[in-house]
Amino acid sequence: MILKGISGPVSEQDSTTREKNMGNRPLSLKKIISGGQTGADRAGLDVAIKLGLLHGGWVPKGRKAEDGMVPSCYQVKETNSFKYRDRTQLNVLDSDGTVIFSRGPLKGGSKLTEDFCIAHQKPYIHIDFDTMTKEEAKTLFTNWIEENSISVLNVAGPRESEDKDIYQMVKDFLLEALV
User: Fold this and answer.
1) Residue 81 in contact with residue 61, Cβ under 8 Å?
2) Could you tell me the residue ranges of all domains in the chain?
3) Cα–Cα distance between 15 and 9 in angstroms, integer?
4) What is the DSSP letter of 62?
5) pLDDT of 60 strictly over 70
6) Over pLDDT 90: what percentage of the chain?
7) Rounded to the nearest 10 degrees, what angle do helices 108-119 and 84-94 cross at?
8) Which end is more exposed in the chain, N or C (fewer Cβ atoms within 10 Å of the end residue's Cβ)?
9) Rounded Cα–Cα distance for residues 24 and 10 (Å)
10) CA geometry: angle at 171 spanning 67 and 73, to 5°?
11) Whole-angstrom Cα distance, residue 28 to residue 70?
């Protein structure tokens, strides 16, 4: 199990829908945000919608994504820049904490996300599917949310072109961990 990815102190939607879908979800979690990219980002937004949570986040100008445009079904805001790094930093700043998913060491935009979390002293957790069991990861993740009072969660990780299976892995993980 990898623990180095933990940082920070570790110790307008219908509320009826939200309460109905709460299950065993950590009580502090109210909203999921992401940069809207294919892969891990979209999995986070789709889980928020499925569970009746608020969702959003910052995306590049023009809703830029590797598959064209971030679909209009996502309630995200555009930055004034086409650069992915700008929306990455805004999502770190606008969240209470960030979960970064990977299969192996962080690289590219995922590593940049970690760097922004460290620079801005924001809590984050790195869930590496290659180094921990699903049960270990779920326990670590849900405890981290509660211990850090995460209300707005930023979801980050590889885009689909970098890891064709990451969308489904993140979606399944979040649905299991948050229900």
Assistant:
1) yes
2) 28-178
3) 29
4) G
5) yes
6) 84
7) 40
8) N
9) 21
10) 50
11) 28
